[in-house]
Amino acid sequence: MEPTSQKTIERVVSQKALQMGSSFPCQICVVGLLCGVCITYFFLAVLTSFGSSEFGSVAYSTTSAGILWPNSSSEVINIITSGDCSSMPKETERRMDSQRSELNGDKRLSLLYSAWSAMLNESVDGEGDFLKRLGLSRSSVPEAPHLENCKLAMQVNKNLDNRRENEIFPPWTIWKGLLGVELLNPTSAVHNQQLHFEHQAKSEGAYPPWIMGSDEENFPFTRNVQRDIWIHQHPSNCSDPHVRFLIADWEKLPGFGIGAQLSGMCGLLAIAINEKRVLVTNYFNRADHDGCKGPSRSRWSCYFFPETSIECQDRAFELMANQEAWEKGIIAVKDNYTSKEIWVGRTPRVWGHPWSYLQPTTEINGSLVTYHRKMDRRWWRAQAVRYLMRFQSEYTCGLLNTARHAAFGLEAAKLVLASLIGEWPEAVLNKTISDMEQFVWSNHKPWISRPLLSMHVRMGDKACEMKVVEFEEYMRLADRIRKRFPNLNSIWLSTEMQEVIDKSRLYPHWNFYYTNVTRQMGNTTMASYEASLGRETSTNYPLVNFLMAAEADFFIGALGSTWCFLIDGMRNTGGKVMAGYLSVNKDRFW
Ligand SMILES: *[C@@H]1O[C@H](CO)[C@@H](O)[C@H](O)[C@H]1NC(C)=O
Ligand SMILES: *[C@@H]1O[C@H](CO)[C@@H](O)[C@H](O)[C@H]1NC(C)=O
Ligand SMILES: *[C@@H]1O[C@H](CO)[C@@H](O)[C@H](O)[C@H]1NC(C)=O
Ligand SMILES: *[C@@H]1O[C@H](CO)[C@@H](O)[C@H](O)[C@H]1NC(C)=O
Ligand SMILES: *[C@@H]1O[C@H](CO)[C@@H](O)[C@H](O)[C@H]1NC(C)=O
Ligand SMILES: *[C@@H]1O[C@H](CO)[C@@H](O)[C@H](O)[C@H]1NC(C)=O
Ligand SMILES: *[C@@H]1O[C@H](CO)[C@@H](O)[C@H](O)[C@H]1NC(C)=O
Ligand SMILES: *[C@@H]1O[C@H](CO)[C@@H](O)[C@H](O)[C@H]1NC(C)=O
């Protein structure tokens, strides 16, 4: 269709839609459906309050440790009640006065949990005040298995995302983890001692390090595609006059949830690849808040590594002001494409048709889906989202730490205390780090309580996008998974509905993890609910749930929801194909 007539149709359609729908999200759906795509409004996930202190309380169906302190001081209590461990019962204060004797098991547990909370909140360097007040030093606190060292992860990943001079790839090796990084680092001791390893590790193995699992556990060609997208997005000389750019803002109408924004960007990445342009993303409204500091404000790079190099970004923005660059078509922007091209455009064919042999591991209504419409789009969105989220920013890493700590911190403390010889904190820790810890085990992901089933339950105003399914149906599927894997009893529940949380109490044989905050009740509209949470919370919280869902061992969701569709993509490029996916409904285009 001619671009201009397409645009006209859209205008007409959207006026119609405005008359038809009274709620904004449904308007968007109407517009979308009429032009062949339902741009989903989703509000995302589970709403909850969030942020370093707000995440403090996670509801457990199991744990509730009484907290007692070695020597009470009102200062400490204040810190505790003001957020750090607000899941702790209020009786704490009373009990503290009466029991100041020796540490018992519960006290040790809560002391360790609090020490970790304090370390999480403080900068990594320097002894925290809080620890001092607890009478602890950093070196006397055992490592937290569920927390990631975000600074170190950043360093390592930055190294893996930067090409060296005159090389095609960043220092990717076939060796996983820090050893691979160290041995290519000319200043490292390992490098100098073990130079002869270098050939072995570098040979042939230039695959992107962010792909987990074997080729069979991912969508076809995932490794090659990720590598090629990276190379496409990182030309060796951004100032080369042959390098062309597509500069695009993220969608920013209030009706677009994060999922819709991501889907739109996937379409733009496809266009960029097809037209041999480097995609440069610009204003990202969801990062326009105080959590995103400095140059990452309002940019994708607040949450994940940028889609292209800083040099290319700078170059692209410089060219925006250059008349000649426009005339020669070196620069293109979102307005150069119709929304049809962006939303339902052509999937890049440079890798052939790998979607034609996707492993059928998705089940809907009791049967495996072996073929469906738009398989190419499913495959491409998975690749594009995986690429955009290949490395988390330090900020996102911190958000995940906070979330894991709130959910699994006490369990982790229990495990660690049980593993120590002698009573902590009196016992002296042996914190010797051997090469094994440093180079090999350092590559393991932070601990979470596994096996874990992630469940995203959407209801509310989703009715305009898909057939809404009751929570009971999700739980029926969960029981089915458990029948095969009886050691599964934990569910990471992500939902915006209070009703769902209430119903979860009817399933005492499951442990539910969810953040304890106000949820949507009755007929509040999603848009106003989202607005009431504020931009930072309404972005961070769903993103954390999204990444947890991608990590979980199993997932149950509604493929009819774009958000779950993208989670499916992340799992299918994250080594989880063989976990299977039980969906309560199907995508509306299948
Ligand atoms: C984190 O530290 C800041 C200042 O150091 C403090 O204001 C805030 O309350 C702390 N948050 C938690 C959860 O302890
Ligand atoms: C959630 O928080 C509310 C008040 O903030 C509290 O009354 C309730 O007991 C908490 N629920 C759980 C399961 O901890
Ligand atoms: C507990 O007592 C020790 C010494 O008895 C002191 O160094 C420490 O600061 C006290 N901790 C708190 C939380 O008051
Ligand atoms: C990149 O290309 C520009 C223009 O062709 C050239 O002036 C510059 O020297 C090149 N930079 C490098 C590092 O090759
Ligand atoms: C993009 O649109 C602008 C303004 O309409 C136009 O000048 C430019 O040539 C277009 N670029 C491409 C690559 O189509
Ligand atoms: C699910 O499958 C059953 C038969 O296996 C069929 O009767 C039913 O209509 C299906 N439901 C949906 C929603 O497709
Ligand atoms: C600490 O552990 C290392 C091995 O992990 C061992 O070689 C060393 O002797 C231990 N040190 C002490 C003081 O126990
Ligand atoms: C929600 O329901 C209440 C009572 O059921 C009604 O008074 C209120 O107007 C409704 N709000 C909306 C936004 O529909």
UniProtKB/TrEMBL annotation:
GO terms (molecular function) for this protein are: alpha-(1->6)-fucosyltransferase activity
Superkingdom, according to UniProt? Eukaryota
Q: Does the keyword Membrane apply?
A: yes
Keyword annotations of the record: Membrane, Transmembrane, Transmembrane helix
The UniProt entry's GO biological process terms, in alphabetical order, are: protein N-linked glycosylation
Q: Where are the transmembrane segments?
A: 24-47
Q: What is this protein called?
A: Alpha-(1,6)-fucosyltransferase
Instruction: State the species of origin.
Output: Tetracentron sinense
